[in-house]
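User: Could you check the structure of this?
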Amino acid sequence: MEHRARFQPGQSRGGDWIECKVIDKPHNQKTCDLFIGEVVAAWADPRVFSDGHWHFTDDDSLRTIQYIAGGNFMSIGESFEVKS
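Assistant: Sure, the predicted structure tokens are below.
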């Protein structure tokens, strides 16, 4: 399958991007406002993601953006560790 991602590193807000193809599930979409997607392309800025982990800095422009609902988004905040 040929794929041409619309985003390029350095052109989006945040330290990453992900592009998905919507898998059509009308019942989920209508009843639960839930859309299921298949990832077709992804990228993470190596300045904030390496060795399988996020390493955010004080540069807010590199923080990831999360979609909440109803057109609302949030930027990832401070990290913390919970000791077990």
